[in-house]
Amino acid sequence: xxxxxxxxxxxxxxxxxxxxxxxxxxxxxxxxxxxxxxxxxxxxxxxxxxxxxxxxxxxxxxxxxxxxxxxxxxxxxxxxxxxxxxxxxxxxxxxxxxxxxxxxxxxxxxxxxxxxxxxxxxxxxxxxxxxxxxxxxxxxxxxxxxxxxxxxxxxxxxxxxxxxxxxxxxxxxxxxxxxxxxxxxxxxxxxxxxxxxxxxxxxxxxxxxxxxxxxxxxx
Length: 219
Fold this sequence. Notes:
Blueprint: H1 3-20, H2 30-33, E1 38-39, E2 45-46, E3 54-55, H3 62-71, E4 89-90, H4 91-95, H5 102-130, E5 135-138, E6 159-165, E7 168-177, E8 180-187, H6 189-192, E9 214-218
Parallel strand pairs: 3-4
Antiparallel strand pairs: 1-2, 5-6, 6-7, 7-8, 8-9
């Protein structure tokens, strides 16, 4: 596999294995991990195949697991001698989460606090427009709000991502304007096939049960 093709696919493949294991890396079959091995043209290698040897992951957020996977996506083999003898990889150490530098620890805690606040605010705002309680605020790629995706905020100030409600998945945008903030949402293409098709005795009376794009603004 070419380097560019590997880099475009390894994170999503590793994430799929992680989610299938329920966050228990030891449950990921080694033969599945083998597909994640790669050697780059410049001599660097990928250690993502060691995904099932991750340790101390219980207290970590999904985005931190993603960061750990990306940290192993391209490494110098000289920095990792005796790869075949590695029995475990401490994700906490890999990410330096518990660095002795207090300012570094504060920075991590601030990020987690900000992510939680962003999710809570977006849940309340979207729920007020949607009409029912929503959950699972994520980026369009499925990540939690985190520093890498600027806590779901785009350059123009728009918050964008996905949420779940009533068993379906939706895209959303919360954006500022002259009159205040506006919320829009539409059903995610992954859920379109799950909407039940109701049989109608009278072809002239058809009911559309899908939710259309809806928005509301407030000052």
